[in-house]
Design brief:
Elements lengths: L2 E8 L2 E5 L20 H10 L2 E7 L3 H7 L1 E3 H7 L4 H9 L6 E5 L3 E5 L7 H7 L5 H9 L1 E5 L2 H8 L8 E8 H8 L3 E4 L21 E2 L1 H6 L8 E5 L1 E2 L6 E8 L2 E8 L1
Parallel strand pairs: 1-4, 1-6
Antiparallel strand pairs: 1-2, 3-8, 4-12, 5-6, 7-11, 8-13, 9-10, 9-11, 13-14
Helix pairs in contact: 1-8
């Protein structure tokens, strides 16, 4: 059985288990094709030269072979339908959810413990918790700064476990997936109150790189997201390191 890395979108939970990639719907919610102009890409790369992805230890081989999947893409791959799928995609997951497939093996979809609906709804604007969970489950995510990555590695659920940390070339990755990329300035899956308040969010919290550039707000971003899947993500990886908490334990692979 092959363990599979999947991304379930909470800001304290990035990707978990992944297996093979399938061709799937690349819907943007509109008919226009999203692009990033050369000048804007230059500005973006200057601010964020590298992307970061934290995965379970031993996951690099699967990522290299099959890419990165959103929760929805993994459910398609595993042919999960009916009530189980609806529950996974539309409801809060306080614990990880194991799934299995006769060919692809087993996978565990990461919990969403920092995003309980009773807190989440206090930060949402014009969106229900169910709609937010569905939206996030259709995307796969990378951190835009090393600082964000370090916070993730040192979060209480993960700091004692080893992880594979992938560093990717921003320019090449964005050039490949520009038509499905949106960025976000907050940890969109973290909905616990901070100083008594949940960070506000809506679908408009996610914008294209061009939209952010036009508004003069390319700086201060937290996450880069790709709709549905990034099947060729391995091609843009520049290094893979083993980390435990904030301590790098060695290099697994380097371009």
């Amino acid at each position: 059985m092959r363990r599979v890395l999947v991304e379930t979108w909470n800001s304290l939970s990035l990707l978990l288990l992944i297996c093979s990639i399938v061709s799937g719907p690349w819907s943007h919610g509109g008919s226009e094709l999203l692009t990033v102009t050369a000048d804007v890409l230059d500005q973006f790369v200057l601010l964020y030269p590298s992307l970061f992805h934290m995965a379970e230890a031993g996951s690099w081989r699967s990522v290299r072979e099959h890419g990165l999947l959103s929760t929805s893409a993994l459910l398609d791959l595993f042919e999960i339908h009916g009530p189980m799928r609806r529950e996974i995609e539309t409801q809060w997951r306080p614990k990880g959810v194991p799934i299995s497939h006769p060919i692809h093996g087993t996978a565990v979809i990461r919990d969403q413990w920092p995003m309980p609906p009773e807190h989440l709804e206090k930060g949402l604007d014009g969106v229900s918790p169910q709609q937010w969970y569905e939206f996030l489950n259709r995307r796969t995510f990378l951190w835009l700064s090393e600082q964000r990555l370090m916070h993730m590695l040192n979060a209480s659920p993960y700091r004692d476990a080893a992880h594979d940390v992938l560093t990717l070339d921003t320019r090449a990755f964005v050039d490949e997936y520009a038509d499905r990329i949106m960025v976000c300035q907050i940890n969109s899956g973290f909905a616990m109150p901070m100083f008594g308040k949940v960070t506000p969010r809506s679908f408009e919290t996610f914008q294209t790189i061009e939209q952010r550039a036009a508004a003069g707000r390319l700086g201060g971003l937290a996450e880069l997201t790709v709709e549905y899947a990034a099947p060729d993500a391995w091609r843009f990886v520049t290094s893979v390191e083993s980390w435990r908490g904030k301590v790098c334990q060695g290099t697994i692979w380097h371009a």
